[in-house]
Every structure is written in C-alpha cells, then in structure tokens.
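Q: I'm writing up a methods section and want to include an example of the input and output format. Could you take the sequence below and give the corresponding predicted structure tokens, formatted cleanly so I can copy it straight into the document?
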Amino acid sequence: MLKIRFATLFISALFLSSVSLCSLISVTTVQAQETSAEQTESDPQQASLDSIEEQKRILKDLSTRIGKSEGLTRTAYELRYEKSLKKLLELNLNFAESVANLDQAKASEKYRQQAIQILNSQFALAADAIKRFRKQIVLPEAGKSAAVQAAAYSRVYGLVASMNHGYELWFKSIEVSRKFEIDVSEQEALLRDIFIERAANISVILDHAMANVSALRASVAVMPTDAELTAQLAVATGHVQTIADGFDFVLQMMDTMELDTGDYHEQLLNATGQITADVFEVSVISNLLLGWGDKLWTMIIEEGPNLIINVFLLIIIFLAFRKLADVIQPLLERALEKSQLELSELLRRMVISIARNVIIILGVLIALSQIGISLGPLLAGLGVIGLVIGFALQDTLSNFAAGMMILIYRPFDVGDLVEVGTVSGTVSHMSLVNTTIMTLDNQTIIVPNNKIWGDVIRNITAQTIRRVDMMFGISYSDDIPKTERVLQEILSSHEKVLDEPAAMVKLHELGDSSVNFVVRPWINKDDYWDVYWDVTRAVKMRFDEEGISIPFPQRDVHLYNETSS
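A: Here is the clean output for your methods example:
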C-alpha cells in the first residue's frame, strides 16, 4: 500500500514538472518572437536582408526542381522562377535605396558593404531576367487566323512589358550605385548600346507593322464583308499601337540617358499620330518643319505646272464652298423659322453657324487635298495647337460648357426679362461664351455664361401672364366692406386686368397704423407696369372720393408724472 502511494506521488510530481516545463518553453518562444518582431521594427534593413536571403533560397530550390522535372511541370517551375527573380531584383533595389537614404551615422559599414555587394550582383541578375523573357518571345506565324495572332501577340506584349521592367530596374540600380560611388560606367555604356539597338529595331518593326495595316485596309476596302480580314485589321492596328507604346518607353529611357531621339519622335508622330510631350521639343518641331519644307521645294521644282493648276483649283474650290455657305445660311435660317421645332434663339444661331463653318472647313480640306498636302501631319499639328490653346483658355472653355447647358435646358431666351446673379434686364444677345443683358435703364452688361449657370436664374417673363402684388392701407375707423367694394370696382373697370384667373382683394393684416388690404390682379406680362401704376393712381383718387383715409404711420406717446414721496 505504501509503495502504491509513493508511485502516485512520483507520477504527480513528474506531471507537474512537465507542465511547468512546457509553460516555460511556451513563454520563452513568445518572448523570442516578440523580441524578433521588435528587432525587425527597429532594424528594417535586417528585415530586408532576411527577405532577400529567403528569396534566394526559393530561387535555389526552384532551380533544383527545374532540373529534375519536364513538360508542364517544368514550365510551371520556370514561370515561378521568373516571378521570384523579378521579386529578388526589386528587394535588392529597395534594400540598396534604403541604405543609401540613411544618414551616415545610422548606416553601419556592414549594411553599406552588403548593399554594394548586392548592387554588384544586381546587373547580372537583371541581364539574366531580361534574357529569359526575350528567349520566350515568339511572333505568330504569317497566315494564322486573327484569333491565333491576337493570343500570340497578347503573350508577346506581356513578355515585352516584363522585359522593360527589367531594364527599368537595371537603370535604377545604376542610379543607386552612384550613391555608393560604385564605378558603373561599363554598365551604363552597355545599357546605352542596348537601348540604341532596341530603338533602331523597333523603328523598323513599326514601319513594317504600319505597312501591314495599310495592306489590310486596302483588302478590307475591296472586301468589306470579310469578317476574318476585318478581324486581322483590328489585330494589326492594336499591334501598331502596342509597338508605339513600347517605342515610347524606350524613347523615354533614352531621353533620361540624354541620347538623341529627335528622329524617332518624329517617326512616332508621322506614323501613328501619337502626341507626346516630346513633340514640343525644338529639335522635333524643327525636323518636322524642315521635312515639310523639303517636300514643298521638291514639289515646286518637279511639279511646277501641276502645282500652279492645283493652286488655281484650291482657290476656285475655296471660293465655291464659301459662296455655297453664303447661299445655304439664309435658306437654313428661313427653314428653321418655318419649322415646327421650338428652338431657342441661341440654338438657331448655333446650328446656322456650325453649318456654315462645316461647309467652309470641308472646302478647305478638299482644296488642300487637291494640291497633294497630306492632312495627317497637318491635323496632328492642329491637335498640338488645340491642346496648348485649351490649357490657356480654361475659363473660356468653362463658359463654353455653361453655354451648352443653357442651350440644352433653355432657362431663358433672347427677349426675356431675367435676373441672373446681381444683374437684371432684358436678354439682347446670347452666345456659347457670354450673354448680353440690356438693363431697364439702358445699360449693356455682358455676363460670362459660367457666372449665369452657377447662380440662381430668375426668368420674369417666361410665363404669358403675371400677377401684380400690391398692398393698400386704410384707417381703423374706415368701413371695411366699402373698401373691398371700391377696390373690386377699380380692378373690374381696368381693361388690362384679366377675368381669369380672378383678381384677389383680401384684408391681409392689422398693422401698427393701418388695416392693410392685398390687391392681386392677373395681367399679360407686357402690361405689368401699366396696371401697377394705373391701379395705384385709381386707388388714391377713389379713396379720396369715397372718404376712405390712407393713414400715415403714427405712434401714441403717454407721459406719466410720478411724484416722489
């Protein structure tokens, strides 16, 4: 029995010791994790290094798996390897940038040396990643369907975007390396050569793609109902736009490296009409102008007689279309006046002006095409000018937008009496930019449309009939029914007061000095002031005849004399 009790006590003690040990281990683990988290927060560079080492371990493991697998499994591992490689490049660059941005006192020599070591290996990693992406680029074979080409080009575009990202990381690594005084002249020269070569290749590819688009457009013009041709044209057009986007990235990188890109920007503009900020460079504009000048001089020498005839045709066509606009304008005016459409004066003027201008512009374009002037670069130049003018005239465009809203919703028209903001008067003229108002004392005020549309608009004469609101007071001792009868007789005897709606005469309020009646007759909008003045005069005269007084304001003052006790 004693042995059993001893065994029980021993087992209990052993169990309690185990529980205590587990608790101690758990607490120690939690403390270690908290300590690690605190160290990570206080030392982000060490955390970045840990992430870099973890990413290297993943790359090494994926490389081993690639060597041992094949087929789809190998392809999956290779895609994961490329993704991890891009992530390692980004982690390396972020670590180096963070160390470079530290104060000299905070950046320990250990971290600086590690950043330098990472940057020295960064260029080889970037070149490896770019090589892997370039190796996978395979253009679709000629003669394939539009669907197959679209799928192939989609994969190509994704690979090119990844390759461009690799070049961007390469370039940023060069910039960060300079902060550590690393000699990167060789890497910079290599990157320059790569981008010069890429620009030359893309230039040729862009010309070839544009020629393919032109050929497909000609085919579609001959067979417009061929769905496959139309689909191939859409794919080819999208291909050109994507090449232009990639070309723009390459040119931006070359501009950053201060390489000459004027001819390429000119090609991008002439080939696709793409307007970028680089078009505003003096070299690009001068090259465009010189190119147009050379073409004009060659045209004069080689096609002198034809040029004279074409210029003569240009003048004849322009004058003919201008005369046509002069003839159509009055016809359109009469047609709009006789039409059943309830158009505002502003809308009628706008329609007439647009029709006239469209005819003249059409004549100018046809005339220019007769002398062989290409309208593409001309329209691109006009687009640049329009962009500059648009930024310079933002307030005017705001007025134009407000004018369009007034045109659509028609809160008033020419001839209406309005109150807009602090201005009141008759609308004498309207345009898409401003509104001219003639005040009642014959002053001309021009109000911008955005001031009108952004404020309260009161159209006084929008309705055909109006109500005149007047108030007359009598003495407290006067006869109220008699007064009501007199006021009704005055209104009923006036020829301009309407029978319907019926006029209103009501005792309105008991004022301080008078009993006030409201008198509200309805009249045609043009008779407002005539009725107002006539009724006011008639009320005064009839009140005098009937012995009804119109009291003036008065106040009773009571004085109390208090004697002091």
